[in-house]
Structures are given as structure tokens and as C-alpha cells.
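Page 47, continued from p. 46.
Same chain as before, 325 aa.
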Amino acid sequence: MSQHPAPTVAGASRPVRTIALLNQKGGVGKTTTTVNLAAALAQAGRPTLLVDLDPQAHATLHLGADAGDADADAPRATVYDVLLDPATPPESVLKEIRPNLWVLPAETDLAAAETELSGEPDRNLRLRKFLDALGDRFEFVLMDCPPSLGLLTLNALGAAREVFIPMQAHFLALQGVSKLLETVSLVSRSVNPRLRVTGIVLCMHDTSTTHSREVVNDLAQFFEQARASGQEVPHRTARILQPPIRRNIKLAECPSFGQTIFDYAPGCPGAADYRALAERVIADWDALLQRRAAGEPGGTLGGTPPHPQVVVREAPRAATADHAA
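Result:
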């Protein structure tokens, strides 16, 4: 496998789209979405890094990249080492899964990071420092957050420019999203002022039930009210991302084989939905980059309803130059 993924966008300062996938409720499809969306982006030719920030290491296992395996090519370090020392060499921690798809794996020791870093003033920005040092090596960075708000999640939110919220269209999940948006607002004020919520990814979705339709309508109305209010909150331009991910048993089965849905059952509805979601994410991103290249002011991701304002992280010039060399 190649040592470095090849750029897909020309230029010495290619933007990086950095996304945290977050939900404080477990079992909502967060890791499934992170893994399969990352795999779909990679299949489309976009260099993608998946960062596993959950001590359960489910995203790492889902990709068949157990940090503790006996593979001679396995990394000697994990995201735990990166948080302790952001200067950790990338070649010792990043593992290539397939062309354009890399993972920064997790391990159970990651749970100890919060205690070990409690006295460090930059404890919530360790991951951002590591990602900044990568320059434009990846076009997309997706971070799988643990189902809790602690140092690991704060590092993801400190490094990200966008938040995707995977959830099921259930009443209790809807209540949880309201609290989650309050958390993101708090983090944006204290840690990362550029953080924005792009939208909701509906997982395990069943359009045939009245309850699901009512919850989706409530979500749409909530975001419409946020746009109309004019308040500068991180979810002001959020929306329900399309398409919803249909309930599909193949999505539940593939992690046990250490495979993405595209390896395990590429023709199933779950694969079709994640492929379509990735295509939409890429189309919005490319359109934004074209507007920027044309010198058009600001702009948003997507059309109507709008996505958040430009939320790209420019690659540091030094890091970009090193990579080009």
C-alpha cells in the first residue's frame, strides 16, 4: 500500500473537511455511520481519515484494524498516544485500510487519557494539533466520538469544524438532540468558535410508521425556527441530511466480520444509502470549493435549506510543503 494518499484537489493549500459524529446516546448508528460514510468517501476517490475516539474501539474493530493484532504492519501507537503527545509521528499511528481510507485506531487504554491529561491546559486541543500537523494529507477527517461528554469528545469538537448527529427518529432521541445542541453551543463558545452543526443523519429509519414521520417533521420545524430566529447558534443552518439510512440487518452484521458494508454486502439497501449520502456530502463540498476558487464571498454548504458557513480547515503551509516534498 502507498505511504501517503494522493491528493484529489490540486493546489498547495487544499482545504480539509473535518467532521465529528456525535450523539451522547449509544446504539443510534453513530459508529456505523462514521465507518460506512468514511468508506464511501474513500471509494469515491477522496483521501479520508477515520479517527476512533471511543475506548470501546468499535470503529477500529469494524474496519478490521484491531490495534493489538499481530500484523507486522499494525501501528505501534493509537489515538491514546496522540493525545498524550500530539507530536507522535503519523507513520507510527495511522493504518491504511484500503486505498484512500486510513484509520487512527483506538484502544481500551484510551479511557485513562482523561485522568492523565486533567492538569494539562491544552488538554482539549491535543487532537487538533496532531491533525493540523498532517496538513492536506486527507481531504476528509471523520471522528467517531464516545457516547459521553468528556475529554475525548471535547478533543473531537475542538478539532472539528462540523458536527453530524446520527440518530433514530424516536421521541426520546429527539429530546436528547435538544440537549446535545446545547452542549455543542457551549463548546463553540468556550473551545471552538467555528464549530457548526451541519445536520442530522437519520439511522435505522422506517418511513412507514406515523411516529417516525412525526419526529422528522418536528426536527424539520425545529431547524426552520432556528434559521428564522436569526440567533448566532451553531445549529442555525442545520438540516436533516439526505437520504435517511434505512433499517437493514446487513449493517448490523458486517462489523462482526471486520468489514464495511461495501465489503460485506455492496448491493444491499444500507450500502446504497451510505453511498448516496457520501455523494451528497461530496457534491456540496465540491460546490463550495468551486465558489471559493471563483472568489465568491462566504457561501454555504448546500442550497435550500442552507448548510453552515464555510467550515474548512486550511492546511498549515509548512506541513503542506513537507507533504509536497
